[in-house]
Fold each of these.
Amino acid sequence: MNSSTYDEVFTPLSVNKFKHRARIALGNCPKQKPEMAQNVIPLQREASLTCSVEELVDQIIGPLQREVANLITCSKLKLEEALNIRSHREASISTCDLYNAGLATSFKKKQVYPSKNLKVLQTHHEQQETKRIPKPFSSTKIDKPFDICSPQTSEDLVEETALVLGPGMILLKHYIPFLEQVNIISKCRELGCGPGGFYRPGYNDGAKLHRYMMCLGLDWNPQTKSYGERRCHDNAAPPLLPNEFISLVCRALDHSHTLIERNLKVDNVNDALPKMSPDVCIVNFYPSNGRVGFHQDRYETQESLDKRLPVVSFSIGDSAEFLYGEQRDVNKAKSVLLESGDVLIFGGESRHIYHGVKAIVPDTAPPVLLEKTGLKPGRLNLTFRKY
Ligand SMILES: O=C(O)CCC(=O)C(=O)O
């Protein structure tokens, strides 16, 4: 046996320990508990009777050595792949990437993937453990260490990415951290249950919108398509826009600027996507059958529209099928799924895109979010603008 290759990777079990285990496998160890003997595979027990303990040890180490050598090659390739992907993104490699790439970050931990031959030497307890260890060649992914807590942040659940849907139109996937989603829901609930809170807008002909609505900053009247200081139906003043909402919008815009500067060749990032600090927000709650027709947002002040200041939209809860397009014809619209934690931004050249929510996808909200907040089935949307 070539022990140097083997020693580079992990400390081998001592021959004595192997001998001890081999005796257990052969069923002749006086200390062996009866239930352990039941786990010995009969075929291997017979085979092992025909050779010495030392030969048995060699039979075990040989395949193990090959597997370890394969594991190192496989891990190196995966690490290179991970580094390449990351260098394209100009970001540093994370623990998560290393795990996804199939390589544990802690090289101190020696992980052994037992070969089939080793199974015969395992105690009952070890066999149970082995069942949970992924085999390196059946999957490229190595499990993360066990987390004793449930995922508490959106980063734990999903990876944050960004999509450019058009000029000045960016979708920040899973951007809002879990705890901020929780805070947004609880703030919207608090405001929504007070004066100027959620109601279901209707038209003079009796038709009702397919969503509940609350305005912040200024009231938006869907029937007259105009902003005002007070709501027509109950004269309530809309609640003020909470500072934490404004900060999150500004953060998302700053982040988008950085992404545009790094990844897109634009002469002036401020032209591509002008920055703004919102002063109005429409909070929509879509039940499972909620929707909003294909429309343009063009009722803010002329200054805001001329500057093509962006619309920033947060999605929380169930996912939505969002349609958007340059033309009024909904049949020519593109579709994108907006999930909990997503931030959609459209400003600059995309400020006047047509858009709408075709459908809510039921039961797609993260269960932990529902458990934590008690949010009803449906989707919460906050759409921010500069009036
Ligand atoms: O819910 C959405 O994502 C869109 C809302 C919207 O278009 C609006 O409030 O004008």
Note: Residues 9 and 191 are 59 Å apart (CA to CA).
Amino acid sequence: MKSQVVVAITFVFLIIAVIVTVNMFAEEKIDTSNNNESEITSIHMGMNMFMPKQVTIEPDTTVLWWTHDREIHNVVGIFKTYSGEEIAIFSGDIPPKADWSYTFEESGVFEYTCGYHETQGMKGKLVVN
Ligand SMILES: [Cu+2]
């Protein structure tokens, strides 16, 4: 039957269209990953610790804190810039499996704690240089 041939050809063209579309998106993904204009540093929170405890980053770096245990944590402290500014930073609650990020534009030092686990020693230090 002719109609069966038409259906088969249409089907083949559809599959080719899907493959081409998927490849286009795959290439787009590779392009964006090569574009590293903004840096991201991640700090894990778990077992009443920030890991790593001390991190040195460059200005304009985004720091991502994420929780990998079953507790709620937060990030609280004052970012003291070398230009003399004091910026109070508070993440609010960061629940399990969630994250929170902040971009440090200026150079300075950020000493912070987790408000829930400060007495257990959950403290961190970030140097922006
Ligand atoms: Cu905590």
Note: The longest helix spans residues 2-34.
